[in-house]
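Repro:
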Amino acid sequence: MRARGLRGVASAVLALVSLNLGPVSLDVGAQAPSPPQPIVFLDVVVLDDAGRPVTTLMPGDLRVVIDDEPRAVVELRYVFGGTGAGAAARAGVGHADTKVAADPSRLILVAVDENSFASGAEQAVTSAVRAVGDVFAPADRVALVTLPQPRAVTAESDRQRFRDDLGRVRGRAAATDVAAATGDQRGAGSDRPLPGPERTETAEEPGRRLEVPAEPQPRSPDAGQAGRAQQADAPVSRASIDVLAELLQGWRDVQGPKTVIYVWGGTWGPDPADPTRPYQPRRDLDRVVSAAAVSRTVIHAVMVRRSVRARADADLERLARDTGGVVAITDPTGTWPGRLAEVMAGRYLVGIEERKTDRDRAVRSLSVSATKTGLTVLAARRWAARDDPAPSPVEAAPAAAATREAAPSASGLARGPVRDAELATVMARASEFLEAYLRDFSSVVAEEEYLQSVTHHRASGDFSRKSVRLRSDLLLLRTKSALDWTPFRDVFEVDGRPVRDREDRLRRLFLEHPDTALQEGARLTQESSRYNVGPEGRTLNTPTLGLFFLLPRHQSHIRYERIGEDTLEGVRVWRIGFEEVQGPTVISDARTGLDLPSKGELWIEPATGRVVKTLVRCEAAGFRDELIVIYRRSDTLGMWAPAEMKERYNSGKVFVTGEAKYSQFRRFQVSTDEQVGVPKS
């Protein structure tokens, strides 16, 4: 595997780089300044007792011991990673004595161990890998390899090759091995510490080439189904852990931190030396941990749980723990209690005094702990001296909590009276997430099944009820000149009766007649709105409406407030309230053009900025409208998409409820430069 220009620092690994401090200021007449004191940096992640990243530590809050010798912590530098890293760093959540930096482009390798699951179990494994993909930032360089027979890959921000490689994953383990591994994996003596580090020599030649083992020969990416099945049944000459160690050794000259996400399906497979016996990985773990230190790599392990009784494997836990990583356990549907997002959101560069012997090319033992209670420190148990450049500090904005009104965030998103700097950081991540989402979710067509009911209350006290079930094609389009989506809805079925031919009319319209597509699409949408029950012209029922309140051009008009935390769709999220405090507003009256201020809530994953749920309330004289949307992962699109929408409309005399579900997502390319607007009331 090859990667060039890797200079950022982003993952929870333990590494060593050199940095000289500037000269010390002296009074006039003082003796000549002493030479700058060289320091080295260690990479550390710190979490609180709820598993959230801690970003406000001071040098005295950490204790470092190298080869049983305590080292004084001289400097802390918190490096934000992933989505919105630069804006998050500029938002300045760090302590006044803690410098901040950013690494928006991380190098990540997903290694799927095909020896750990049987043929036929690929769906659970690929679902887990797709869940891992939710952690990636748009700028991350990502690649996927399969063990024990990796092929040459290139880490890149374009995810298409990653998705193609995921489709080639094939289980190799025998079914009997998997069945035997569904219980408690802990073996006698497996909790014993690893042997002490050997004095492993490291190469000093600079370079950026990522190599894969020459043996065994990589399988062809174009192999057909029969070929893959034959390979799955073929005897394996090497253990996956052994191949992983070689991969890590081959990366030792690549600058910057690296992250491996090792996907394990429940068994270690047979011993290559004696296929009649199970493989014992603990004998090779020592080599992997040392190779991770040499290459500056953290390993996170993802265990695909096949049974609710299965527990984390002890050797798998040691693999992650001793390289500074964590173990995430999925359920059979591929969801998990999201730990990776928090762990990969950022980390500390811990600067300590350098010793002369630090650069003797040896792998050493290391222990990092917190002097405060209630904190969890993730740091590798070994490291080797390296000369990777450290990321430059970013000047932090004034802390928002220090004043009654928040300072503007670098993203321009939290310009309302946000009252804490952590919230400004989350909003900065959400701003970048939305920018990528606008790009990736454009020109998407979904099938919408929408049940609407209306109740009319008469002055006499009587009432009438009516309901309708609509099936439509819903197109969400972003043109070159528009700043957000424009929805086009084309109803094709009412209460089970077709109202037009079942064809992809919207898709054909924009592909075959782009010059007039916007006008014709708007006409079809207006025509379809007549099937809605309730007031005429009601067009706020668009699933992406809640995301408009995160658009940068609206943020100076909106006040945000952190309400609390929740867990939705297996994701730990912040619940953030918003309220439009001045115009122009997102929603306006279609007849008068007057602003219609809205308020609501957004459920956002703080480590990635991903939106999981939205609630919008628009209230004015004579009506109140409320829209709730839930997002879930779409394997077809390779991203999260609207899954459910609920609407409540009340004008006093008319009460409308609606529930919609979305499926059959498909994407196509549209070329148009015409101006379109946002949904209006």
